[in-house]
Amino acid sequence: MSRPAEPRPREGHGRGGPFPARHLPAGTAAGTPYDLDIRPENAGWAHSSLKVLTLAPGGTHTFPTGDSEWIVLPLGGGCTVATGGLSFTLRGRDSVFASTTDFAYVPRATTATLTSAGGGRFALAGARCARDLPARYGPASAVPVELRGTGTCSRQVNNFAAAARAGGADEQGFECDKLIAVEVLTPGGNWSSYPPHKHDEHHPGEESELEEIYYFEIADGPAGTPGLGYQRVTPSRDKGTDVLAEVRTGDAVLIPDGWHGPSIAAPGHDMYYLNVMAGPGAEREWLIRDHPDHAWIRDTWPGQPVDPRLPLHESHQGRQGQESRQGHQGRESRQGHEGDAR
């Protein structure tokens, strides 16, 4: 399974307050027992969290959910999630490049215990919330796999916890109160999160205000050469977020504001990132504005084929009928440019 790169010391973890930088190289945002520990308190914002946990074979970990809802998402390996008298067995996957995965939703104001017989790595994606929703299992067979863009802008989006989007084939999505989370896979040499886009202001029906975390894993080359990619964020306001980062497995980028994209996969190295978002809006919605200098790229897509390397892995849809569909809330759909730039 994919493992984080060795920590790179050029940026550190601000233990006494917010992180000193928006790019967090692998290991610099660790906090026992987590390989990555991003919370509102150290991110310098109000809503979104992401933790990455490694468990040895037979390992277990219990965490309080506090004022946030959480999704337990296997990155590599499987586990059992016990909460509120319920137990969900997550089959998981070999790596983020191997397949979609099942997952578990854990509500606020409770505790959850992860136990992994074979060991593994697990993402805990969280958002402060106001509603008490039931704990649920999300089967891999119900994760919508979408191909976006064409040509060198082609990418794959696993919409496991995308926000509901009216007007498409399916208007429900997986129900959360505030949390929005998806996985994006970009073939080596391609650009994703393009055109650059933002969601840092509330404009009804046009743009929603969302904090966002990007967590990266990059595939090694054929000879085992460690992979790399690049992430750009440009300011959308005075003194806004400005990042140009070389990203490797285990890195994260915090985006409280700004035009974000492109995410660039180096040739020969497929790129994975997990997007975790939440914000203050009354509605859980994912509305974006494209950067006006780059929005034209969408007009070129209809005339080009989707990259033939996609999908990068086989979807579980239709081949895991034995999985329980307990808690499945439907498939992702579309509304305008809502989320299209992932």
Automatic annotation (TrEMBL):
InterPro entries: Deoxy-glucuronate_isom_IolB, KduI/IolB_isomerase, RmlC-like_jellyroll, RmlC_Cupin_sf
Membrane spanning residue stretches: none
Keyword Isomerase included in the entry's annotation: yes
Stretches the record annotates as Disordered: 1-33, 299-342
Keywords: Isomerase
Basic and acidic residues composition bias: residue spans: 1-14, 325-342
Residues of the signal peptide: none
GO molecular function, one term: 5-deoxy-D-glucuronate isomerase activity
EC number(s) per entry: 5.3.1.30
Protein name: 5-deoxy-glucuronate isomerase
Lineage of the species this protein comes from: Bacteria, Bacillati, Actinomycetota, Actinomycetes, Kitasatosporales
